[in-house]
Amino acid sequence: IFRDSGVITVAKDFDQVVAEQLDSIDIAACGYLSPVTDPFQSLNAKYHLSEKIIRVFVERNIPIEFITKAPIPEEVIDLIKQQCHSFGQVSILTLKEDLRKILVPRGASTDLLLQNLEKLTQEGIFAVCRIDPIFPYVTDKMKELVELIERIESHGVSHIVTSILDIPQKIKRDVFSTIKKYFGVAMEWDYQRLYRENMDGYLNADISYRKRIFDGLRNACERKNLTFALCMEYELEKGEIIGLNKGVYEFSQLRRN
Fold this sequence. Notes:
Layout: H1 2-5, H2 14-23, E1 31-33, H3 44-47, H4 49-59, E2 64-68, H5 74-80, E3 87-91, H6 97-103, H7 110-122, E4 126-134, H8 142-154, E5 159-164, E6 167-168, H9 172-183, H10 185-194, E7 195-199, E8 202-205, H11 207-223, E9 227-230, E10 234-237, E11 240-243, H12 244-256
Parallel strand pairs: 1-2, 2-3, 3-4, 4-5, 5-9
Antiparallel strand pairs: 6-8, 7-8, 10-11
């Protein structure tokens, strides 16, 4: 509905639905806010659904995590720290604020996102920073990524997660058009050449490019004694989709040897 007409829909009282679902089961995994939308976007300031859902989990002593590119509400901090296995993830794409405004125009500034991480760690809440997604040829310069890792580490973070932009087949023309609008026609051509691997309806950057970036990031994290993981990164091997977390570790070890 939003893509067609700009109408935003809200599942009012969804926290009550979640509460009923949790009360109906005997075993529950960690809650997750949210795989497809930021839980603390501006609309949440009106409905407070994210805080209500977090409260539902915490009251039942079930862990919950969130991922955000927005300022974390104080109420969320107060709730999360009541459940010792709950944690927060903050996505930071770049230290360049002018570039951040293009990539995440409605997100918080990078300084505010770093403050998010510091606030979590100061409150004793496990904090994860996601460099996610990396935009090829835009935010992938290793020197800048290492600088970002150093800034993240200085704010108390010990675990970093990353991925490289994948492009849904259904909107690839829109994505390439947007790349052209902000970064020029040459960049659009570069993306079309790089994004040739089709897996489960998504275009992925060339596997050798992705492994090179991940290898550099893993090594940078290890030098700072940070743990490192990938999110939803795969490769095709003899027609089978294989997760890259283990593979990138082995690739890194081979490079060292």
